[in-house]
Amino acid sequence: MTLPREHARMLEMAFGTFSRHWANQLVARLRVSVTATVTEVKMCSYDEYVASLPTTTAVVLCTVDPGRRTGLVQFPLDAALVWIDHMLGGPGTPGAVPERELTEIEQLLMAELLRRVLGDLNYSFAGITALDAVFRQIQYTPQFVQAAEASTPVIAAHLVLRVENQDVPVSVMLPAEGLIAAMRDGDHVDLRTAEEVAEEKAQRRRLEEAVQQVPVDVAVRFGPITVHPRQVVALRPGDVLPLHHPATRPLDVVVGDRVLAQAAPGAQGSRLAGMVVHVKEN
Q1: CB count, 10 Å around CB of 46?
Q2: Locate the Flagellar motor switch protein FliN-like C-terminal domain: which residues (predicted)?
């Protein structure tokens, strides 16, 4: 299963935005340094995604529109226990609390955080589709979570949250069908960042300014006529060429081979000149 390059880029941008927002949520609640990076975004089967997860881990089930399908957000249980310790005012020492399932109170704390995280997921994907991800529950054994059929295509993103000096691998699984359909419908959407768009505009402006400074040859001429080669070869001083150009018709103002305007013949001082009487529209 391979994503088209344009779709992969859209997803990487969305997950990149989401990872930064997740890091900000943790900074606000844990009061420690948190950064985030996206390590992989791919399309695979649901079975392949589940096989990549630890046997025991925190798995957040959420309902995802369109179609009310199920998405997953996964993170290590030991990391969740450290986060909760921070939120309760503790030192958040990794390994201080043995890995175990969350208590009811701990689940309530994590659920409040995860609802905000899912809100950031919805925001990050708003440019692709309306996810409307809604928190449902936390489970601990991915192999027993029946979020989709084994062969169902899904979008799997693997991220790393660096909480203080600890790397925390996390992942997100979203049903591929709705996302792929939304991206196909929006293939005309500009995938560039705001910085890339601004840079292109600046380059175009510089190019236009540079072109306006380039000197060009302008000619004022009669309309061309067609003659046989033998007539050209036989030309002699005194020969008269009929131009078929009415005396009342203006002359052509030409740059290269393109007629840009018409001008009436005249003079400026001792030199011939043409007074523009009409400019052609582009």
Answers
A1: 23
A2: 210-277
